[in-house]
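=== RUN LOG ===
request id: a7f3
mode: sequence -> structure
chains: 1
length: 500
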Amino acid sequence: MSTRANFLTIPDTAGDIGSESSHGETYDERHSGFGTTPGPPLRRQLSDSAPLTQYGLNCSPDHASTARDSIKNNPEIVTRILGHLGNQDDRLAALRVCRDWSARAAEVLWFRPDLSHYSTVEKLVRTLESPDTTFPYCKLIRRLNVVSSAPWIEDSTLTTFSRCDLLERLNLHGSRALTPPALEATLKSWPNLISIDLTDVTQVTDEAIIALAGGSPNLRGINLNGCRAPGDLALIALTNNCHNLCRVRMGASSSITDVGISTIVKGCPHLLELDLRNCRNITDIAVREVWTHSARTMRELHLGFCTGITDLAFPAKVGTGEAGDVPRDQKELNVVLPGQGEHDAAKGQEVSGSPLGPPVEVDTAQLVPKIRELAITEHVSLLPGLSKVEIWRTTVPQTLAGLRILDLASCFQITDIAVEQIVSSAPRLRNFVLSKCSLLTNRSIEAICELGSSLNFLHIAHVDQVTDEAIKKLVQSCTRIRYLDFAGRYSLQGQLLIHP
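=== RESULT ===
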């Protein structure tokens, strides 16, 4: 009855609102008398069975004015509806309905401009620079993606984009023509910025990221893959100001060391993804800091081509303490990274991990020298402590149940011991990359079999010591595996491929 009542009264309501015009009616509706003319028998039938208010309907004579007032007082309703229109022509047509609809349609159209061609970027720049416009377009833009036009994006274009002070997401992937002065001047212009992609923007410097961190305290994701200059200075500034960081990608950076990684994993408690591929200065200390302090949140950890990593980077076994406890070996030996006190002082909190304070307002001119002096001091003091920390194998008080993706490609120093430790500590791995880890044997495959149905992706290419029997056991144990790469094993028997 509920379905029938709703269906039958919708045309009745539509007839009350749009009785002056038959636009939008079908041929059957116009000639059958159904839908446009309210029928008294239908009203009596519904009123006898159940009140109309039960179905949330209002068929009173002033329903049309009530609906108009509701839309006028709640314009976001129209914006939501227009946002579901997939056809761009329909959204453009909404601009011509009336003044109120035009304003709502403009919000939808300018929320994320289509910048697939550079000619469109040029038109957008001219519009934003125009002194007399119909709408305040700078206030409507929330997302900008100029990947398709990246080779032609220059400093003047980025300067114009800085007028969009409500911008939330910015993608400048591959914009190599941008210069350091322009980046430093504009990246601090977006206080609402949530995500920024600066992949292969080769002119990005520590100073630019410090300016970005000071102006965007709500930043949650930053991609700096391919930017070799940003290092510990950038990570320290992000930690001090962007406490909600979830995803950090710093692949191929030649300036990042254990100091920066230790700082960010301790200062950003919501970290989900950390990409450090091809960061050659990363050692076991940085990895064990990630393993210890991001156990609750970490989902993706990319350490491919970090050739300095050994078995000592990973926990020996899972402890039995409460979540958040200090690992037993570090608690007993009181082992901390050198200079960590200065880091905690810079963040305005105690070593014991007191709650994070409000975002710090950054004065770039004053902050850069302080951070640079701090980083240089810690680089010097870090070296004598390496041997002291590395001789002890670490443990973690809880499993990394949330870790889903782990990339250890070309970490050629790790052995079967590391794989066993990883599987024990991260029992729900889905993607595991171990390509070119030449020291691994069948023992590692036997450990990976314990992942069972959780494993979906395994890359063990160019691992010559793994035999056919181990792979057969792996396929039988991990029944939901979708991708298995063992390229480079020329001794693989064809029978294994036919009968796993």
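=== NOTES ===
The longest strand covers residues 143-145.
The first helix runs from residue 2 to 17.
=== END ===
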